[in-house]
Amino acid sequence: MNNKLSQKKSVHWRFHKLRLFLVFILVLVVVMGLTIIFPPTYSFSNELNNAYNSEKNIEKVDWKCPTDAKAAAVGTVELGVYKTCGTTNSLPTASMIKVLTSLVVLEKHPVAENDDGETITITQDWIDQLEKTINEGGSNMWLELGEKVTFKQLLQGLIMLSGNNIADSFAKEYFGSFAEYKKAAQTYCKEHGLTQTTIGNDASGLDEGTTSSASDLTKIAILALNNPLLAEVVGTETAELPYLGEITNINKLITDYKGYIGLKTGYTDLAGHGVMFANKTKIDGQDVTIVGVVMNDDNDYEAADSLVKQAKKALEVTTLMTAGTVVGHLKYMGLERQKLVLDHDISVLRFKDQQVDLKMEQEADFSGQITLSGDYGENRPIILGNSSAIVSGSFLGTANKVKMKLFG
């Protein structure tokens, strides 16, 4: 009798649980149906634009330009050109243009990362160019007829020894003639916004018709540092070359100063002394590469180092919005309203005198974006860390998330 009673209770409990489960499913279907018919809506709050008052966070940056330089510029790989000094006109570049020569050749003849490139057998054409360079009194990399040299070693001779002969031989080797190289270089300049750079009658910069501005040369430096092989070579202190043995980079910023990873020196009587520079540092724990150029200054190394030190003081990482910042609200049928909050901090790298503007844009597919922009030139604040953020709220216990794209 007890067993039968127990069995009846068990069956009854199972039916009860089944009814509860069916009720739950029914409620869930109703909620989902209502959500489809009347989907939750969200709106971004004006609180976003008040989260960071950029005007109150701007600091004055006292900037001292090199007094003897005809032109100079400084910026970072991350932000672009920040400050220019002296004339904004184009000036003779001397050998600093060899960085551009390298970029144009590497675009035509790419070399994979961690690769030395092809092995080249030195022909009479290479020797003839070497003799021509010597007769012109230009800097050179010595070569022997029949010698086998890798592309990387030739690039080291071009940058570290400033070999004019390598620049002009590269032009003929990879483009067939200097005229074809010049066309390619002009196209490269146009494609990369180097509007103040002109190629003269050689690829080395010895010809005074090769000119550029401080702003353009800084852009060229940034392009170079984004090419793995070229970035390695411009920052190399010593290297081993066939016949010559160990060579030392003629750029004293590399050998005598702290933190420099490139780029290139230059000198002619008309161009004077110049140097393109790159210095790797940390700003508030963030890796930053400061770049720039000094043109026509007998104290070019000291002038470059002064610009780097000033840039380090002018840079900062600042937090625009912290995790938990309310950026909008979630509503359902106009009855329920929940806050949408950021799930992580949004920080940017900027110069202290750079205004950062925030703007939230709502899109139809339940996504949005935060746009950040700077207040001068082409410089833009750089968002650090995650490239997107999730703002989230809840309705009826169900999490609702809105993904926002973050970009500067």
The value of Rg in angstroms is 31 Å
> What percent of residues adopt helix (DSSP H or I)?
25-40%
Average predicted local confidence, pLDDT: 81
From the helix content, strand content and strand pairing, which structural class follows?
alpha+beta
Biggest sheet strand line-up: 1-14-15-20-21-18-17
CATH class category label of the largest domain: Alpha Beta
Number of helices: 11
For the terminal residues, how far apart are their CA atoms?
78 Å
Q: For this structure, what is the CATH homologous superfamily of the largest domain?
A: DD-peptidase/beta-lactamase superfamily
Strand elements, count = 21
Q: CATH topology of the largest domain, which one?
A: Beta-lactamase
What sort of overall outline do the alpha carbons produce when their principal axes are compared? elongated
Please provide a written account of the structure.
With 408 residues, this protein is α+β, with helices and mostly antiparallel strands. It has three domains: 1-37; 40-57 and 319-407, no CATH class; 71-298, 3-Layer(aba) Sandwich (Beta-lactamase). It has helices spanning 2-37, 47-51, 98-108, 124-136, 151-160, 164-175, 178-191, 214-225, 228-234, 252-256, 300-314, and strands spanning 41-44, 71-76, 80-86, 91-92, 119-121, 148-150, 211-212, 238-241, 245-248, 260-268, 272-283, 286-295, 315-321, 326-332, 336-342, 346-351, 357-362, 367-373, 382-383, 388-395, 398-407. The strands form six sheets. The chain has a seven-stranded mixed sheet. A five-stranded antiparallel sheet has the order 3-2-12-11-10. It has a three-stranded antiparallel sheet with strand order 13-16-19. Helix 3 (98-108) runs parallel beside helix 6 (164-175) and helix 5 (151-160) packs across helix 6 (164-175). The longest helix is centred in the first third of the chain and has 36 residues, at 2-37. It is elongated and about 105 Å long. The N and C termini lie far apart (78 Å). Mean pLDDT is 81; it is low at 362-408.
